Amino acid sequence: MKVLISTFGTHGDVQPFLALGQGLRAHGHAVAVCTSASYRPTIEALGLQYAPMSDTMLNLTKALLDGSEKALAVMRRMGPAMRAMVEEEWQAAQAFRPDLLVYHPKMLGSYHVAEKLGIPLAMAIPLPFYTRTRAFPNPFFAGLRLGGWANQASFRLMSVTGGMYSGMTNRFRQETLGLPPLRRFADQLVTRAGAPVPVLYPYSPHLLPVPPDFPPHVHVTGSWFLEPTTPWEPPAALTAFLEAGPVPVYVGFGSTGGRGAAQRARVVHDALAQAGQRGVLARGWGGLATGALPDTVYALDEAPHDWLFPRMAAVVHHGGSGTTAAGLRAGKPTVICPSYGDQPFWGRLVAERGLGPEPIPQRKLSAGRLAEAIHTAATDSAMRQRAMAIGEQIRAEDGVGNAVAVLERVGQQHGAPLPVA
Fold it and tell me: Is 142 a residue whose pLDDT tops 80?
């Protein structure tokens, strides 16, 4: 089976899909990944085919997040960049001719491309964002306590957001694909033939149990973790730091913007000192301007979470789904300092499960509050035991394997060839 994977975004948006591609390839399928050009070396190092897409949209997103350009100037360039992206999706699909398309919902052309090619598709996102349930509200309303019917109603937000891009996607359908336009708020989780689009949610059901009202075409697979192809060798300075004293605390805010980066770094330094903890700081996309550091703090640009997190006493981060999953997989208590999107949802969930203290929104971040949270995460034995227990459960999951099995069933139902055992 030939599978085209289309995704876009920061490292956390792309890496799970590379793990899926890795798993599909291990099961004998041909895989191409359509995403920003910056990821091409990583994709090809995994033995996957790269389907070209420019870095334009990724660079604009980065500029918006790190504050390197004025927001209004960036937004003016977003429209043309988005239109170029859907055209690149089509070009990638024409070149690869897939039997199945798996896509992140940020890839706005995928639904239409699959219809044009007459192939099945599956949507994937590590967040229960597109399936109505009585169990909890739409994750963007994480702070609200709603009843069952109101929880379900909160998911209707998605039909509104999809309509924001209908003008662009309908032009794409008509002018490029030769397809008829869709209604402004058409449900793109149902095919034109009326069948539901399979949905994959790569997060752990041990962290967020599967609601009983999820329909059968919705699959909570477990998280998708990339398997390292070669052992990672840490810098000598990092090894020396880890060996020089007590187990440190990881602090990193991922793609949090560069605005206020120096102030955030000062807050982190002061908080670690007040909590009596050593720290490993990840700079991310300018989220922390580390500058001069005391001997008790080490700064790095990047390190594989699966190598680094098991060597930490606790992890402090922004609450992206991938970083949250990696920290819990390592069995570490987690302090989440959310900014936007799904981050408050994971912060609230981690706290409710007793796997970390209450989340501290970035706008309310202070040295005192962070110090208290770090101290709790690093010293609370009951919290540590709970984190270790869920870590064992997550490590026992086979999220990629579960997803591959679902996709093989989808392909088989539509006559796609499967590898010979």
Answer: no
